[in-house]
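Lab manual, section 2.4: Encoding a predicted structure.

Procedure: take the sequence of the chain (329 residues), apply the prediction step described in section 2.3, and record the output as structure tokens. A sample record is shown.
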Amino acid sequence: MSRPDTDTPLIQKLPTGPIDIIGDVHGEAEALNALLAHLGYTATGHPQGRSLAFVGDLVDRGPDSPGVVRKVQSLIQAGVAQCILGNHEMNILRGLTKQGNAWIFGKTESLDNTSTIHPQVAVNLTEREEMVNFFKKLPVALEREDLRVVHACWDNSCVELIRNDPFSLETFERHMLRIDREIESHPAMDNIDRGLRRQNHNPLKVLTSGPEQRAPRPFEANGKIRKQERKRWWMDYKAQPFCVFGHYWRTMVPGLPTGNQLFEDHMAEQALGPGFSMCIDYSVGGRWRERTNPDFQGKYVTRLAALRWPEKLLLYEDGSSFQVGNIQV
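Recorded output:
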């Protein structure tokens, strides 16, 4: 894979002024357009001069990932928005075939491993190359004095390791080679510890898909039996500035296995842990399951959300809003 024409810092600055941070979209173009309308954005900007930041995972599973990418591209080109890489964009950059991303290879797929094909707008080779080049130029984190935005986890040591690195895929591969050498020097390490080493010692893995730990017992997630589970890093996050992230589904999706419950001790419209961070992913990535449920009545449980800052107001695609009252900054 070739380098982009212009090196892009992996850690970039957020603009000053009021900002709206949008959670994982996962190809749900209709939900994104509704949310942007409620937020007051047009193709050329916001009447009050607000800006947008997307937390990544624009794509996969939903019906129109290309439409979402093009919408975000147009907002970035208009100087209205910024976007960071999520783990789903990283999978595409790495050329990996994962659940929900057949569209990028011009193919169709079943999302529940049945004979049912779930509709997704596919792209041709030229369109794929254009999107890959767009993803190459995205950072992995945004920051300013009062605010941080990352896809899965803010870890200061990981941020500093890659702060001056320009190209995410080369950085990713360099750290994976280092980790593989470390694993080779510990032949007694079991497969779970090897997996945890690859997950927790690569800064790009940590920032885009979060730290993990051994699960007390195997569990099912995305059709696979897993022995590693996600760590609730936000319970120990007490730093300023405030951190906004996505990646972890906060809403239970009807009909999907739940895995480990990360937010059972938090209300949906609540900051996490000591109050210095908030996940704004309300599981719109599972909306395909709701849509195909025979009992679906047209009202979604999953939602697309934006956190308005500095107002600390959570706004959903249906226009409903909630004040987040326990933020500690």
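Check your result against the sample. The first helix runs from residue 29 to 39.
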